[in-house]
Design a protein that fits this description.
Leucine Aminopeptidase, subunit E, domain 1, nine-stranded mixed β-sheet, alpha/beta, binds zinc ion, binds ligand BES, 13 helices, 20% strand
Length: 491
C-alpha cells in the first residue's frame, strides 16, 4: 500500500472511501467537522463517536468521496497516537473486504494536523492491511487496499519537513512490523533456525547492514554450551545471528537488542501437552521483532550503535536431546543444571547475552516469549518488563508509551535468586511453581551481571489468538515500536 500526505480539505478529495474521525459527545465533546449532514444519525443515537464505532455511508452531501466512514475516536481529550493507530487500522479493515482500492483519512480538522498523528495513522493503516494468509492459495477474502492519502491541513512551510519525516517514520515502522509478522507467521517446518538466519540475511543485505551468522562449529569453539544443549535434540542446526548498525559518527554507548528465536518449542524431553502445541511456532517472535527493528533503524538512522543478537534453535525431544538433570557449561563459564528442558529460552538467551557483553554492548534489552507465567500475571494486554537498572527501564517505558505497546514493571529482587539454587551446579534453570516469570528473569540476570538491562517477556502480547478491529489475528510485532523509539530517542 502506498501512503501519501496531501494538503487539502477532506471534502474535496476524490477517493473510494474517506475516513473521518468523530468524537464522543456523550462525554461533553463536539462532533467532527462532518457533523452537519449527519444530524439525523446523531439525533437517532446511531452515531455516538464512541471509540471504534464504524459507520459506512455512500454519497454524503458536500463530499467528493464515493463513501465516507465515520469512525468513533472517543473523547477528544483522551485521544493520542495509540488511539490514532487503532482507528486508522479499524476503518481500513472495515473497507478492505469490499474491493475498495483507494482510501483517504481526514486529518484536516480538530487539531489532527500534527506529525505524531501522521506517523501513527500511516503505521495503523499498514498494520491493519496485513493478513496472515501468505500460504493460503485462495486469497479472495484478502483484497488489499492499494493506496491511502492522509489529508492534512496547511502548516507553516518551515514545519513541512517534520511532517514528511513523520510520514516516513510511520511507513518505516509499519513495514518493519509487517516484516516481523511475516516471519513470525511462517510455520515451523519452513521457518527453521537456518531459514530464520536467511530471513535476517535478506533483510540485512537489502538494508545495508552487516551480518554475521555463527554456526554450530563456531559456537562450539566459543563454548556456548547452554545454547548448544537446547539445540542438540533437533536435526536442524542452531545459529546465532548477529546484525550490526553503526551510526555515522561513533557513539560511546552500544545497545544490544536480543530476541529469543526458538522456531518451535515442543518442550524437549519435558514435553508440552499436545493440545495447543501448534502455537509454539510463535516462540521466535522476539527474534522476528528484532529483525524488523534493524530494518527500520537502517532507514531511520539513530545516532547510537546497535547490535542485534538472535540465538535460534528448535527445541525437540529425541535420542540426542538433553535430559532433565544434564549440567551444561555456558559461555560465561557458569554451570547450569537443566531441570526442565522446556525452560529453554533462558538458556539460549544466557549465551547470547554473554556474547553481547563480549562484543562490547553497554546496554542490553532482550525480548522473549519466555514464560506462561507472564500470561497468567498480565494476560494479553501488557508485556512484563524486568530490569537491573531503573534509569534504563524509564527510557524503555517512555519509548513504549509513544509506541502504544503496554509494559508493566515486574519485580526482580535478589530474593528471587534463592529459587534457582541447586546443589549440583551454579544455577538451576527453573525456580519452582510460583513467580515463574520472575525466576526466569532472575536466571537471565545472572548472566547479565551489572550491564544495564531490560528483559521484556512478550509471551502474552506477541500473538493475538483472536483478531482485533484494527489488526488480524496472529503475530503483533510487539515490542518493535518500543525498540525503535528507544533507539531513536537515545542521547
Ligand atoms: N515458550 C515457552 C513460554 C510459553 C509457555 C509461552 C506457555 C506461552 C505459553 C517457554 O519456553 C516455556 O516453555 N516456559 C515454561 C517454563 C517452565 C518450564 C519453568 C513455562 O512457562 O511453562
Ligand atoms: Zn519452553
Ligand atoms: Zn520457549
Amino acid at each position: 500500500m502506498e501512503i501519501t500526505l496531501v494538503r487539502s480539505r477532506a471534502a474535496a478529495i476524490e477517493t473510494d472511501a474517506l475516513i473521518v474521525l468523530d468524537w464522543n459527545i456523550e462525554k461533553g465533546g463536539k462532533h467532527s467537522g462532518i457533523s452537519v449532514p449527519l444530524a439525523a444519525f446523531y439525533e437517532s443515537g446511531e452515531i455516538t463517536g464512541k471509540m471504534l464505532e464504524l459507520t459506512l455511508m455512500h454519497g454524503v452531501e458536500g463530499y467528493k468521496a464515493r463513501r465516507v466512514v465515520i469512525v468513533g475516536a472517543g473523547e477528544r481529550e483522551k485521544f493520542d497516537a495509540s488511539a490514532m493507530r487503532k482507528v486508522a487500522g479499524a476503518a481500513l479493515r472495515l473497507l478492505k473486504g469490499k474491493g475498495i482500492q483507494s482510501i483517504a483519512l481526514a486529518l484536516d480538522e480538530d487539531g489532527l494536523t500534527v506529525p505524531a498523528y501522521v506517523a501513527a495513522a500511516a503505521e495503523g493503516l499498514l498494520l491493519g492491511n496485513w493478513e496472515p494468509d501468505e500460504l493460503k492459495t485462495d486469497k479472495k477474502n484478502n483484497k488489499q487496499i492499494s493506496s491511502a492519502v492522509l489529508v492534512a491541513g496547511s502548516v507553516a512551510p518551515s514545519l513541512e519537513g517534520q511532517f514528511d519525516a513523520a510520514l516516513e517514520r510511520g511507513i518505516t515502522i509499519g513495514k518493519a512490523a509487517n516484516l516481523s509478522r511475516d516471519i513470525s507467521v511462517e510455520p515451523p517446518n519452513l521457518l527453521t533456525p537456518r531459514a530464520l538466519a536467511e530471513r535476517a540475511r535478506t533483510m540485512a543485505q537489502a538494508a545495508g547492514l552487516s551480518i554475521d551468522v555463527l554456526d554450530q562449529d563456531r559456537m562450539r569453539q566459543l563454548g556456548m554450551g547452554a545454547l548448544l544443549g537446547v539445540a542438540q535434540g533437533s536435526a536442524e542446526p542452531p545459529a546465532l545471528i548477529v546484525i550490526h548498525y553503526t551510526p555515522a559518527s561513533p557513539s560511546a554507548d552500544h545497545l544490544g537488542f536480543v530476541g529469543k528465536g526458538v522456531t518451535f518449542d515442543t518442550g524437549g524431553i519435558s514435553i508440552k501437552p499436545s493440545d495447543g502445541m501448534e502455537k509454539m511456532k510463535y516462540d521466535m517472535c522476539g527474534a522476528a521483532a528484532v529483525i524488523g527493528v534493524m530494518q527500520a533503524l537502517a532507514l531511520l538512522k539513530p545516532s547510537v550503535a546497535i547490535t542485534a543478537l538472535i540465538p535460534t534453535v528448535e527445541n525437540m525431544p529425541g535420542s540426542k536431546a538433553q535430559r532433565p538433570g544434564d549440567i551444561v557449561t555456558s559461555l560465561s563459564g557458569k554451570t547450569i543444571e537443566v531441570l526442565n528442558t522446556d525452560a529453554e529460552g533462558r538458556l539460549i538467551l544466557a549465551d547470547a547475552i554473554t556474547y553481547a557483553k563480549q562484543l562490547g554492548c553497554t546496554h542490553i534489552i532482550d525480548a522473549a516469549t519466555l514464560t506462561g507465567a507472564i500470561v497468567v500475571a498480565l494476560g494479553h494486554i501488557s508485556s512484563g518488563a524486568f530490569t537491573n537498572n531503573d534509569a534504563l527501564l524509564t527510557r524503555w517505558m517512555d519509548a513504549s508509551k509513544d509506541a502504544g505497546e503496554k509494559m508493566w514493571h515486574m519485580p526482580l529482587d535478589d530474593d528471587y535468586r534463592e529459587l534457582l539454587k541447586t546443589a549440583y551446579a551454579d544455577i538451576g534453570n527453573i525456580g519452582g511453581r510460583y513467580g515463574g516469570a520472575c525466576s526466569a528473569a532472575m536466571f537471565i540476570k545472572e548472566f547479565v551481571g551489572d550491564t544495564p538491562w531490560v528483559h521484556v517477556d512478550v509471551a502474552g502480547t506477541a500473538w493475538l489468538d483472536e483478531a482485533k478491529p484494527w489488526m488480524a489475528k496472529g503475530p503483533t510485532g510487539i515490542p518493535l515500536g518500543t525498540f525503535v523509539n528507544l533507539a531513536m530517542n537515545w542521547k
